[in-house]
Write a structure and sequence with these properties.
The complex is a heterodimer.
Chain A: E1 4-7, E2 10-11, H1 29-37, E3 43-47, E4 63-70, H2 77-88, E5 94-99, H3 106-111, E6 116-119, H4 122-129, E7 138-139, E8 148-149, E9 157-158
Parallel strand pairs in A: 3-4, 4-5, 5-6
Antiparallel strand pairs in A: 1-2, 1-6, 7-9, 8-9
Chain B: H1 6-27, H2 33-41, E1 45-47, E2 52-56, E3 62-64, H3 65-78, E4 82-85, E5 91-93, H4 101-109, E6 127-128, H5 143-153, E7 168-171, E8 185-191, E9 197-203, E10 215-222, H6 226-240, H7 251-258, H8 260-274, H9 283-292, H10 304-314, H11 316-325, E11 326-328, E12 334-339, E13 350-352, H12 353-366, E14 370-373, E15 379-385, H13 389-398, E16 413-414, H14 429-438, H15 442-448, E17 453-456, E18 470-477, E19 480-487, E20 499-500, H16 510-524, H17 532-539, H18 542-549
Bound molecules: protoporphyrin IX containing FE and iron/sulfur cluster.
Iron/sulfur cluster (SF4) binds at residues 415-417, 421, 423-424, 428, 456-458, 460-463 of chain B.
Chain lengths: 161, 556
């Protein structure tokens, strides 16, 4: 079973942050704070579900990528973390979902501002490779990733483009 | 009633197609049952003891005749000819085949219905007062707000994988018929001194193994902030609710462990960032949704007053039915009619396809095309002219739907229990049936007066036993079924959690125990105007313990 990195354009080959079963290139939030304090930049930070993302506010410009961990499909904390990173902290760099990433959650991930996912789940990887996402293009609520307003109610959106 | 616009229709069809794809992937084995589970749950599909079960949403319990007919069609074509109305104002089908479910959803979509978020750890079907839009005592119709919440919460990308399921209820009357204090969020619609609409917000109510009464965290939330404030609550809960133990994952535990004040402060801080965001509701949007719920045009039917008096005189059965099952409508010539789904000895909440069709026709003829589902597992025709009550009664009688027991001892709530449910310790339905048989005599029931019995087959409390005046809980002891009785629960504006009266009873002794409890009340009450719950609140558990256990009385 091979792990892929995927974003809206398709499968990303040779991504520098891909785990490839080896030691992860990401550091923890604590380590990222330390690195940044000593002048480090181009940092890849791995945010665990219990981490407070607002701690990253001071070092956003030092980050190359934020990885959000989904330890299990039913742990949805990272959806709020992504929302806060985008909406509250104004982070504009890459956000990646790692861990238990399953196909049917990917459309939600994209909507809360996640750009890329890493998954080793074979059926998920296959469908993503084929660019067959199961999402619905009509949204009943605004979310971190901007979408088009509709001419109906203020809370509704539709996918841009 | 709310009518789908093009957006809603397109959304629901896309959702059906999406689920069809998920079912196909499951049937071909591309995804495992484990991976399929959260997906099917998001669409109301459970795996039960004998079969899959499909739960269909009836938002805030409001149905049109056309929709009821479709529910009958689904019962007939894909199930065994009946459906089960639940305490969440939904309907459940116990015997559908997985491969048929996408077709069922497509049929439902044709009448603007769906099964979205009727299970899973997401924001569930929003419930409301079943008399909304008709009751004389309401401030304003709460359903437009429930509809806004239904829309906003549908496939919410941030809040679809919460620590646990999440239930919101809305009421708009002081007399709370929506049990808001045992919901994760309970909203009470009210007006401030300037006449503006807003909500008292309660959070952290719930039943299950740790029953808790909700705490009020906001006295008046202006309507424009409904979505921003609820988003703040949901975000704090999603980030901080416990995920290590599913029995401690509801928001009630977060409220309990964090402290109401501290949690309210966290919510307030989150809300400060959101209140002027794009979630703010424009007045025009609220007004547009509210228009859908405009009361039907009700003609003056003053002749009903005298006719009603004459009919009651000539038929005591009809008089009983009017006394129990008809409540005053906002319009003096009309009434709100409860159709009991609790025939004596029957299965609480079950309705056959034929009955559903008959009710749909009667709603069309007599109730401006509207039907409601109550959390007490009955149906309501909300707008019936007094002048039509007699023919309506006759027609209901012909279908076995005229039981005059609304609010009486045989109007029992029971969960599916061991007959259907994989989590059950004990049966619930046969217990309800036996109690109903025992107390079925009309005169005796009326003598006993208002008394709510609620039965759950396990501690998950789907049958609301914690808030029954008499609650019955099935437990398992050494491989045998045993029933624990609680007294003094209530789910209205004076919500209370029932207290365990003593050691449990074997299945064959439960009905006798209920009989003892009822007799104790009858001989002790100060008069017929002291209802069971008032008597219990006055005297406490002592006389009941004494009567049930005598000298051997023991605390449980
Ligand atoms: C037969 C399949 C069912 C299963 C597997 C099931 C499962 C559960 C579980 C596990 C809980 C506890 C949740 C918690 O405390 O976190 C629960 C609570 C509840 N369920 Fe069910 N249930 C079923 C049927 C029903 C039915 C038929 C109804 C309506 C009549 C219902 C309404 C409720 C209610 C009202 C609660 C308690 C209120 C609360 O959420 O605190 N359930 N159910
Ligand atoms: S209370 Fe228990 S037995 Fe009854 S339906 Fe709920 S989970 Fe099943």
């Amino acid at each position: 079973m091979s792990t892929i990195v995927w974003n809206r354009e398709g499968v990303v080959e040779d991504d520098r942050w891909a785990s490839n079963g080896e030691e992860s290139a990401f550091v923890s939030v604590d380590e990222a704070m330390e690195l940044a304090a000593t002048g480090g930049s181009d940092i890849g930070v791995l945010v665990e579900p219990a981490d407070d993302v607002s701690r990253l506010e001071a070092i956003l410009d030092r980050l190359a990528i934020v990885a959000l961990d989904f330890p299990a499909f039913n742990d949805g904390r990272a959806f709020s973390q992504a929302t806060l990173l985008r909406d509250r902290l104004g982070y504009e760099g890459e956000i990646r979902a790692v861990g238990a990433v399953l196909l049917d959650q990917v459309p939600f991930m994209l909507r809360v501002g996640i750009d890329s996912v890493e998954t080793g789940h074979e059926p998920t990887a296959r469908r993503l490779t084929e660019m067959r996402l199961p999402g619905i293009d009509l949204y009943y609520q605004p979310s971190a990733k901007p979408a088009e307003p509709t001419n109906t109610y203020s809370w509704r959106r539709r996918a841009a483009g | 009633m709310y009518r789908y616009d093009e957006f809603d229709r397109d959304f629901v069809s896309a959702r059906v197609a999406q689920f069809r794809d998920q079912v196909e992937r499951r049937l071909t084995g591309e995804i495992s049952e484990d991976a399929f589970k959260p997906l099917r749950l998001m669409n109301g599909v459970y795996l039960q003891l004998h079969a899959y079960m499909l739960r269909v949403a009836i938002p805030y319990g409001t149905l049109s005749s056309r929709q009821m007919k479709m529910l009958a069609h689904v019962a007939r074509k894909y199930d065994r000819g009946y459906g089960h109305f639940t305490t969440r104002q939904n309907i459940q089908y116990n015997w559908p085949k997985l491969a048929d479910i996408p077709d069922i959803l497509e049929d439902l979509a044709s009448v603007e219905m769906h099964a979205i978020q009727t299970s899973g750890n997401c924001i569930r079907n929003v419930t409301a007062d079943h008399f909304a839009g008709a009751a004389a005592d309401e401030v304003a119709d709460p359903r437009p707000y429930a509809e806004i919440l239904r829309q906003w919460s549908s496939l919410h990308p941030e809040f679809s994988f919460l620590p646990r399921k999440f239930k919101i209820a809305v009421t708009a009357a002081e007399n709370d018929r929506a049990a808001i204090q045992v919901h994760d969020i309970g909203l009470q619609l009210k007006r401030n001194e300037e006449g503006e609409i807003g909500f008292a917000v309660h959070i952290g109510g719930g039943q299950g193994r740790t029953p808790m009464i909700a705490k009020k965290i906001k006295d008046f939330l202006p309507e424009a902030h409904l979505l921003s404030y609820i988003t703040a609550i949901m975000r704090v809960y999603n980030l901080h609710g416990r995920r290590d133990n599913k029995y401690k994952a509801r928001i009630k535990i977060l409220v309990h462990e964090t402290g109401t004040e501290e949690l309210a402060a966290q919510i307030e801080a989150e809300w400060a960032h959101l209140r002027e965001s794009e979630l703010r509701l424009p007045d025009a949007d609220i007004a547009r949704i509210t228009e859908y719920f405009a009361a039907p045009e009700l003609a003056v039917r003053a002749e009903g007053w005298t006719e009603l008096a004459a009919w009651k005189k000539s038929d005591p059965g009809f008089a009983s039915w009017v006394a129990r099952n008809v409540r005053p409508h906002r319009h003096p010539d009309y009434g709100m009619v409860t159709i009991s789904l609790k025939p004596i000895g029957g299965i609480p909440g079950d309705a056959s396809a034929d009955q559903m069709e008959a009710i749909a026709d009667l709603a069309e003829q007599y109730s401006s095309d509207e039907i409601r589902v109550t959390h007490e597992q009955n149906l309501v025709l909300p707008h019936v002219a007094l002048a039509d009550l007699e023919p309506l009664y006759r027609a209901l009688q012909a279908e076995g739907l005229a039981t005059a027991n609304s609010g009486l001892v045989t109007d029992i709530i029971a969960c599916p229990g061991l007959d259907y449910c994989a989590l059950a310790n004990a049966r619930s339905i046969p217990v309800a049936q036996e109690i109903s048989e025992r107390f079925g005599d009309q005169a005796r029931q009326e003598e006993i007066g208002d008394l709510k019995i609620k039965i759950s087959g396990c501690i998950n409390a789907c049958g609301h036993h914690h808030v029954g005046h008499i609650g019955i809980l099935g437990v398992e002891k050494k491989g045998a079924e045993l029933y624990q009785i609680t007294l003094g629960g209530s789910a209205d504006e004076n919500t209370s959690i029932g207290e365990i009266v003593g050691r449990g009873f074997e299945p064959e002794k439960v009905t006798d125990a209920i009989e003892t409890i009822v007799s104790t009340y009858l001989s002790g009450r100060s008069g017929t105007d002291e209802a069971f719950i008032d008597y219990y609140r006055r005297v406490g558990a002592a006389p009941f313990k004494e009567a049930l256990y005598g000298d051997k009385a023991e605390a449980a």
